[in-house]
Amino acid sequence: MQSKREEKTKKSEGFMKSVLILMVSQVLIKLLGFVYRVYLTNRDGFGDEGNAIYSGGYQIYALLLTISSIGVPNAISKLVSERVAVGDEKGAHRVFKIALMTFGVIGLIGTLILLLGAGYIANVILQIPESELTLVALSPAIFFVTIASVMRGYFNGKDRISATAKAQTLEQIFKTVLTIAVVEIIVLMYGKNVTIMAAGANLATTLSVLLSFGYLALYYKIYKRNEQVKTNKEYKPEKALKVVKNILFVSIPITLSAIMSTLNKNIDSITVVRGLKKFLSESEAKIQYGILSGKVDTLITLPLSFNIAFATALVPTISAAIAKNEHESASKRISLSLLVTMIIGLPCTFGMVVFAQPIINLIFPNAPSGSLLLQISALTIIFSVLAQTINGALQGLGKIMVPAISSFIGLVIKLILNAIPSIGVNGAAIGSIVNNFVVFVISYYILIKTIKLDIKPLKYVVKPVLATAIMCLCSYSLYIILIGASISGKIATLISLIFAVALYFISIIALKIFSREEMLMIPYGTKLLKMLEKLGIYKKEKIR
Question: Is residue 517 part of a domain?
């Protein structure tokens, strides 16, 4: 029989494997997202103005999508995992079926709002009339994403996270290929009409969502055929209305939190162009917003895409652990997730501050402006990723209103700062920093009051900061040397960034940020630990 320690290590390693699956998926998704955003920004006839039209419409779509579906996967996964943990398989499936019908209606309403209100939203709210077509093109996607969100939540709760990861990756592959294909077809048919090009790019989003939904529907059909949902007499089926109430009780606070995050970008889409037009031409105001939404936001959301794996995986695992009264297990998973989040967030934050202009020159050679805005905005990364992980933990612990409340407070502060037109588009970036900092502080305070965590400043702050400082200092020095040796800027940037990643990894190992137990929790950590023991970095554990 396995010892309790071995059993706990195995469970934690299983949790980290789920995180790894999602993280790899998110890396692929973000890289593919980079491809089509870089393509659009550098496409002749699109550029920063096209990004303003594309992003203005997309952010409204994202808001309606958030209202109808964003809180759904975590809510469903939480409720399903709780039932599975105590053996109520039929109850878990009942949650799924009722949620599918409920959110199908909500998704349909969202689609109709966007379709019928496109003209008013574009002309009155956004004050970007050209975005009307983009809103119409996106409207059908809301219904299909909402249904797909219920499916993803069910599979996450049943520990079938790979299904979610594959569906999201396939969606992004379709989106990348279709965006480029549709825009090129439009150019051939209508010429370089930026309005139609932006609408075509968003039409590609709708088509990719439909294809991804088709994959999930097929996966569910096969899964249902093979799965036997057992009837457990110990658990009586709840009435449909009560199940709906339970789902809404969990999903509404999670959705409110997501709405606050989405409103963060909608505040930019509504206030930036409106405010800048007071002292800039309309065209220049759109270009400034296009820089923020098309280039800067694309870059600073990259670490959030990697880190969302923790927020997603924490909700069902923490919910299941609490349902079985395994508080120590929940505490260890949260602590490890926070440590990895720090290790992800710090180098991304300060790496973008140091390499802002070289990165923009590398990725957006045809539109190289915006380095100062990127440097300011990069400071939001560390607070955003930490808040993301903490909020996932709080949702798993049942503190589902905390993320919504903290996000609302941060949003009000951002709205005030965005309303100061004299500081220009940089005000939006500064507002985002303060917003995410406030959300992090409030959420972290509630987290440590809810569950006991072993957070040591040396391990969680000092060592990661030291590793980041070593990385930034050495890699930027290498960049300067390469530029001085007449190496091209793009090649120098690539070499320096690759060197930075390698040096950072070595620094983490050398500083022994992870304990032996934490190393064993990481996928393939056993092999890595044995290798580090041979190198003398970690001492071999004595066999008793």
Answer: no
Evaluate whether residue 468 is within a structural domain. Answer: no
Looking at the 3D structure of the chain, how many domains does it have? 1
The DSSP element (H or E) to which 243 belongs, if any, is: helix 240-276
Closest C-alpha to 385, from 23, 15, 11 = 23
3-state SS record for 312-362: HHHHHHHHHHHHCCCHHHHHHHHHHHHHHHHHHHHHHHHHHHHCHHHHHHH
Q: Is 449 exposed, middle or buried (0-12, 13-18, 19+ CB in 10 A)?
A: exposed
Domain containing 256 equals 4-227+242-455
Read off the pLDDT of residues 328-358 as tens digits, 9 standing for 90 and up: 878 888 888 889 889 989 999 999 999 999 9
pTM equals 0.68
185 within domain boundaries? yes
Q: What are phi and psi of 459, to 5 degrees?
A: -75, -45
Q: Is 41 exposed, middle or buried (0-12, 13-18, 19+ CB in 10 A)?
A: buried
Which residue, among 298, 220, 200, 238, has the nearest Cα to 91 in the 3D structure? 238
pLDDT band for 201, please (50, 70, 90 cuts). confident
153 pLDDT band (50/70/90 cuts)?
confident
Q: Does 528 map to a domain? A: no
